[in-house]
Amino acid sequence: xxxxxxxxxxxxxxxxxxxxxxxxxxxxxxxxxxxxxxxxxxxxxxxxxxxxxxxxxxxxxxxxxxxxxxxxxxxxxxxxxxxxxxxxxxxxxxxxxxxxxxxxxxxxxxxxxxxxxxxxxxxxxxxxxxxxxxxxxxxxxxxxxxxxxxxxxxxxxxxxxxxxxxxxxxxxxxxxxxxxxxxxxxxxxxxxxxxxxxxxxxxxxxxxxxxxxxxxxxxxxxxxxxxxxxxxxxxxxxxxxxxxxxxxxxxxxxxxxxxxxxxxxxxxxxxxxxxxxxxxxxxxxxxxxxxxxxxxxxxxxxxxxxxxxxxxxxxxxxxxxxxxxxxxxxxxxxxxxxxxxxxxxxxxxxxxxxxxxxxxxxxxxxxxxxxxxxxxxxxxxxxxxxxxxxxxxxxxxxxxxxxxxxxxxxxxxxxxxxxxxxxxxxxxxxxxxxxxxxxxxxxxxxxxxxxxxxxxxxxxxxxxxxxxxxxxxxxxxxxxxxxxxxxxxxxxxxxxxxxxxxxxxxxxxxxxxxxxxxxxxxxxxxxxxxxxxxxxxxxxxxxxxxxxxxxxxxxxxxxxxxxxxxxxxxxxxxxxxxxxxx
Length: 582
Known about the structure:
alpha/beta, eight-stranded parallel beta sheet
């Protein structure tokens, strides 16, 4: 169905008899007119009209089918006189969100999108302002969307700290099959519930929905970002928030019943609070203390089915840093200019804590590579980018290899910086791509062969394949130990449609090395890799380190950390070291 209101097709004189007006609607695709109807307007409230029968050509997300878009023309007549005209593109698809209030103690619960009756596995990016100055959004949009497409993302979450994007953004998503999770623009703190503010929110939501609702790429309206969580921290019940529980729910019910609505992300329902299960919600933001990406906090023991935020810091490339810092400030990293360009700068704290998230960078280097943090920018940036790249790869592949059995989607944080800063974006403000970007691209291939450590046992590691298409795919593969050049596994199998399945087992490797995975699908050869072994830490000590403190970082138990220069050598040997801006 397509909804049309008076605001879509122009003004009607309030003093005139509404029965004099009619709306002529024509729809065509691929040069063929498939819908042609004239409807009398019986009242001033607008109308919702149906297209008889199921459309022959549905709109699908990328990898699942074609993005069929119909061209619709609306003409408003008074008698025989044409009063107004509008054209829009529509894609026909259904979307459903299967969601429970929480995951129970037996692991039962769900958060999963169903599009055109088929489960949709989400893998993509959170979207932040493209620039500190909104007037520059459009000049940065095309490049940003090309990066989204290139890295294999199939979803963008328009984060609640963002502004509402321009029409070109949503048009691109419609045409390329990138689905959109749309937050309303409220984030990270409680908003007033006064009558005046509620009225403003209602007007804003109406205008946003009426402008955007014809885009098939939008599959969800979400009330805000993390305000439920903020209210809970303050000891308040988020279900008393009139903005998300009443106003936005009412506007969506009036203006767009075709999409699911989530009051907040993460959403904590009244039932979750009543049953004391607000810590086991099915969709969550997975942050925690970001020192080591394989710690249990990030593993399969995490109850959420869907992670709509997760990220890991990575230092900018040297050439990027030199663009926004004077030579005397480029190194060492702990100076006032680096602090100024921190993702979360604490103005009141002039001590180490004011570095806040920049502290994650040396802490993550220490976790993976030991206490000796590199003493020059080139190696510091390299070690940091290897750490970030391995983290993104590990987490995306953990989710994909556990597809449907455990997880239903991951929206990582984030693709692109909107100003020069040290952050967890995988592409900086100047479009230098960090190593993580290239790992993400390989990990988000439509068909991806990967090692899953969490689904392994003491004797074997498991080789999995994930397939986002709706067709089974034949896969041949070879796994080589890069440090010895020895092929340790090869074979063939089937990547099941819209699923993840085991291909083979690899005898467990405890020593540190890099496995190169080469596989072929539909006549094309792809590469992936896996870094075996792990640094040995007392993780109780590790996670007890204050979030903003990297100085008092615990030493590894047995000193078995990686050598970043050795990892670099392995990646170079496998032709997987892609450095941009070094």
